[in-house]
Amino acid sequence: MISETGINQLATVGRLLDHPELARVYVYTCYYGSVTRPEIKAALDIPKTTVYDHVETLEALGIVTLAGDRPVEVTADPVQNHH
Known about the structure:
Layout: H1 4-18, H2 20-32, E1 35-36, H3 37-44, H4 48-60, E2 64-67, E3 73-76
Antiparallel strand pairs: 1-3, 2-3
Helix pairs in contact: 2-4, 3-4
């Protein structure tokens, strides 16, 4: 039986797959570690407001953490594969 955490993780992965640009922001953050939103914007060539929206969505999904203040550091919390 899949745990509630497992179901939530699957829902998160599904959300990322439905939104390729959102997934790009997440993968970039996973790969490069602690990054700022302007760095994400520059690297992925996505409008500033879109980057802010995507980071907010990823934070709401619980897969990125925001820390610090001006510039805020965005850190990914990798989606875990639980058996």
